[in-house]
Design goal:
The complex is a heterodimer of chains A (about 120) and B (about 220).
Chain A lengths: L1 H11 L3 H26 L2 E13 L4 E8 L4 E12 L6 H8 L3 E7 L5 E8 L3
Parallel strand pairs in A: 3-5
Antiparallel strand pairs in A: 1-2, 1-4, 2-3, 4-5
Helix pairs in contact in A: 1-2
Chain B lengths: L1 E7 L7 E11 L3 E5 L8 E9 L8 E5 L43 H4 L6 E5 L11 H13 L4 E5 L19 H6 L6 E5 L5 E6 L6 H6 L2
Parallel strand pairs in B: 6-7
Antiparallel strand pairs in B: 1-2, 1-4, 2-3, 4-5, 6-8, 8-9
Classes of the chains: A alpha+beta (about 120), B alpha+beta (about 220).
Amino acid sequence: MADSMVFSELARSKPCWTNSVRALIFLVVLAIAVSACATSESTEGEVVGLVIEVTGDLTAIESFVVLDSSGDSYKFFPGDGMTVMGSPPMHLRDHLVSGEPVKVMYHEGSDSALIADDVVHGNA
Amino acid sequence: MVTLVASPLDAPDTKIEADATFTWVVPDAFGLYLADVPFDRAGTWQIDFAISTGEETEPFLIDIAAEPTTTAIGEVAPQVETPTVPNTPIEDLTTDTDPLLSLYEVSLDEALSNGRKTVVIFATPAYCTSAACGPMLAQTKAMSAEYPDVDFLHIEVYGGFNEPGFAPDFDHLVPAVVAFGLPTEPWVFVTDESGVVGGRFDGVLGVGEVEALLDQ
């Protein structure tokens, strides 16, 4: 709100084309500010635990669930470009069978879903 | 002692109990508990374990399908022609870094129709490195020496893995994997002399499981 008032006062003392440029710059700055704000509010993190559920097929997975040592479970959805230890995503199922832990690097999506960015061996 | 307790989510008072027995996958290194559970209806089931030492485990859910989506026990295995040596270079047939040539000498359709028992493993050794998945091909290779009257085959899950730009996507699944309807890997199928599936193993093999079928 305060920024808008400052801009309005400046606009009154300048030629019309200048106002348009300033308005554009202001909108760009505002958009960047909003974007930065949104980024700072998103959650990023990592979880180490056991894979207890994998849904999908040989070519793609739909979701997977990791149980951490505290007994909390996290349901992840694969993000664009998610890597799984250099293997197809269904490699996660091998970890489900073997009980070998994984580490998931993730961020929170706009709908609060947990989006997995990278999955590595739990002891990595 | 470990007892598996299965309950349908929509009928939690119904419980099926089955004793689980331990078997090694890699002797003295890694093993698992096996239990035969006669699921009598499709749907979501909760699985719990009762352990005689009193240790607690987390329950988990599994979905039981009304019909199998993967070639089932009792069905005739799909007779799919698969590439073999010497028509195809061995390095284009397997990602195994130490391949056993005899696993690539007979096409699957020929093996399933020649009157011999067949053991076929679908696996991608290059990706199959975990403690559960990794040993499966090694176990199969070791068994092949003990059963000279049985055809042992290894089929890669993805084709064209040496081509530039290869990706393990649907377009690269080999025809046999599609025909068997495999949702995951690795799998081992054991067929009788008529090509009928007598056993199938998903993800892991306990010591002696395939041998028990071949010895029948």
